[in-house]
Amino acid sequence: MVGVPRSKSCQTCLQRRVKCDLTHPECLQCSRRLTKCPGYEKRWKFYNQTVGPAKTESRTRSKPQNRVVEPEPAPFTSSRGHTIDECVEPNLVVRAFDLQGKEMFCSFLVACFPAQFASCGGRVDVNWIQYARQPILDAPQALTWAFRSLATLHLGRTYHDNEKITSSRHMYSRALNYLSDLISHPRYMRGAETLASAILLNIYEMQDGLSPLSWLAHARGLTTIIQLRGPEAHRTGFGTTLLKSCRSLLVCEAFIRGGRCFLDKPEWQKFLTEVVEAESRSAKGSQLGILVDRAFIEVSCCPRWVMETRTLINRPYNTPPSTPMPPSTLIQIMSQSRRKLSDLQQLLEIGLSRQSPPAHDTAWEAFIGPIAFNFLGTFAQSAMNGMRLAVALLDQLLELVRLHVDRGGYEDCALSLSENNPRSCIANPWAKLGSNTATWQLDFDPDYGLRRFYMTREVPGWMDRMMMSMGMLGVRPRDLL
Questions:
Q1: 99 and 232: one domain?
Q2: What average pLDDT does the segment 289-302 reach?
Q3: What per-residue string of b and e applies to 169-193 under the rule 16 or more CB within 10 Å gives b?
Q4: pTM: predicted TM-score of the whole model, two decimal places
Q5: Which of 62-71, 89-98, 416-425, 466-475 has the highest mean pLDDT?
Q6: Pairs from 375-381 (Cβ < 8 Å, separation ≥ 24)
Q7: Which of 46, 310, 343, 474 is most buried when burial is the number of CB atoms within 10 A of its CB?
Q8: Is residue 70 one of the residues assigned to a domain?
Q9: What pLDDT does residue 414 have?
Q10: Which residue, among 273, 294, 290, has the nearest Cα to 369 in the 3D structure?
Q11: What is the pLDDT of residues 106-131, one digit of tens each?
């Protein structure tokens, strides 16, 4: 007898026991997994219906022999040694392993980014923990192995297990290979899962990198992926969470690279402003979070002002400008940005000074919104430190431009620099900037100036501090040898 399988699925979907969408020439299930679809051709299978009677007849004609009693298998195992769960559901072990890994990733997130998650987790539609726990149909292998690598690394460091740390590095390498395949595929290079995988692998590199600044190379990759996705892909849903998760990395990378951050472009500045206005009308909005987001819009332009000032000062006098921004325009824009940051800093200080006792206070609850009270002080202090660093940087840049204007004889810029602004820090951490050509090259030191230039509260890890300070914490001028 010839039998043909009743299912019309492809061979891969039949083996994986998943529903096939029957798309020709290749199904979407195989395309998402970046595997070649074997097609829908069915092979005939031959069944011998006389197997049962033949065996019965042979048994009756055969002589009785001494039968060897085989040991019975365990009650919960099959004859092949598999458990009953593996026989009924072959992928059960893999799913259990992924579920355990995602829960461990959630523990890692709360342990390493407590204030960052507390400040943004309740203000977005889908946060990282919700995204990790929700079932994702046919998740890319890059995302799966990124979750596994971070979870295993956290587990190994928690229990001081070097074998688990080594295993996490192998998982990280495997996730990088899968991510490379996703980025090279034109259909998935702009996907949210691709960006999520890149962010997780960037965080892994920050935790266990080859060098202290090796994570900056991954941050440049994040810049490319986000620009390919465009602003509208990050307006709502998990896209907003992805952008808020890595925006500080983008600013810090632009400082170290010595170039502009793409978030200072007009279309992105308009988009960031619209997102802030949308949150101000939302029920999940937080006045404290809105103040920090408005400050970030100004901070994202600081790498450009450093680049413009460096270009202006290094250019010889009485030569045509190499950039379209003249000194007077540069002075005006940086002064406006400094004024906005100072106003936002004052509003933040006033809002925190109104902190009331545990009794019900509608104004105070509207100010903090869904931000967890336990991490309110840490988040506000780190954000305020970021604002102070940005204001101090603009003060130094304006001073450098003033000296350059005085030496070059720009009469139209003299009045714009006459105002005296109060210092944001007792000692300006950017004082060395511009003293020498080599000082324009910025470095990153997460412990730079924690107690000398501004106050900070103890938080478990430099990554959380840097994220909350909008990428400003740790950036410093290069020391001269």
A1: yes
A2: 95
A3: bebbebbbebbeebbeeeebeebbb
A4: 0.77
A5: 466-475
A6: 375/114, 375/115, 375/118, 375/119, 376/288, 377/457, 378/114, 378/115, 378/457, 378/459, 378/468, 379/115, 379/116, 379/118, 379/119, 379/288, 379/292, 379/468, 380/288, 380/348, 380/352, 381/455, 381/456, 381/457
A7: 474
A8: no
A9: 44
A10: 290
A11: 999 988 898 888 888 888 999 999 99
For residues 459 and 332, membership in a common domain is answered with yes
**Domain match, 105 and 16 both:** no
Instruction: Average the pLDDT over each of 155-169, 355-369, 429-443 and give the range with the smallest value.
Output: 355-369
Same domain (yes/no): 344, 441 = yes
In this prediction, residue 431 has a pLDDT band, given cuts at 50, 70 and 90, of confident
- 13's torsion region: left (phi>0), alpha (psi -120 to 50) or beta? alpha
Residues 40, 104 share a domain: no
Q: Are residues 112 and 207 in the same domain?
A: yes
Judge contact between 260 and 303, C-beta under 8 A: yes
Q: Specify if 133 maps to a domain.
A: yes
**Token pair listed for 187:** 């259909």
Residue 362 lies in a domain: no
Residues 401 and 477 in one domain: yes
Q: How confident is the model at residue 275 (pLDDT cuts 50, 70, 90)?
A: very high
Residue 304: count of CB within 10 angstroms of its CB? 20
Neighbours of 287 (CB within 10 A): 19
* Per-residue pLDDT reduced to its tens digit, 438-471: 778 888 887 775 555 445 444 557 888 888 889 9
Please state the domain count of the chain: 3
Q: What is the rounded average pLDDT of the residues 420-434?
A: 67
The confidence score (pLDDT) of residue 351 equals 81
Structure tokens at 78: 């099959």
Are the C-beta atoms of 176 and 201 separated by less than 8 Å? yes
Nearest by Cα to 276 from 290, 286, 265? 290
